[in-house]
Write a structure and sequence with these properties.
Helices cover 43% and strands 23% of the residues. α2 packs across α4. The chain is globular, with a radius of gyration of 17 Å. The relative contact order is 0.21.
Length: 137
């Protein structure tokens, strides 16, 4: 699916696109989780977009659960939240890039506090390439 002429994807490219993706994903997180990360950085390579968020901070509830010796429950809760938000995140990526999201992966880590949102889209993003190695005979 190519970007629509005159649409957001046609207007954004390079660092501006990456910054807008970071800002948009953090905004969705803040709106729905009540807080956002201290830092967010987006990487794009070919047909993959990765949003890395650091320092989200833990809610009092999460801190209590972690202090009880069960940090894996906090990870599971955050991963459940990310699954619930998958469609909103994907719609945002599609709107900004003009590409269809074909797969979404999310990973949360407690110490250090890092969350990654990974989007695979239906084609390469202009200006963000990669070299593919395939077995030859």
């Amino acid at each position: 699916m190519a970007p629509k002429p005159g649409g957001p994807a046609a207007e954004l490219s390079g660092g501006e696109l990456l910054a807008t993706i970071s800002t948009s994903i953090v905004g969705i997180l803040r709106e729905n989780y009540g807080r956002g990360p201290m830092k967010a950085k987006t990487y794009a390579l070919d047909d993959i977009i990765i949003v890395v968020m650091r320092g989200s901070g833990f809610t009092p509830l999460e801190k209590t659960i972690m202090d009880s010796g069960e940090p894996e429950r906090v990870i599971a809760m955050r991963e459940d939240f990310q699954r619930v938000m998958a469609s909103r995140y994907s719609e945002t990526i599609e709107k900004l890039t003009g590409r269809k999201v074909v797969a979404f992966l999310s990973q949360a880590h407690v110490e250090p506090d890092i969350t990654m949102e990974i989007f695979f889209v239906d084609g390469p993003l202009a200006g963000f390439g990669a070299v593919e190695i395939t077995e030859t005979r």
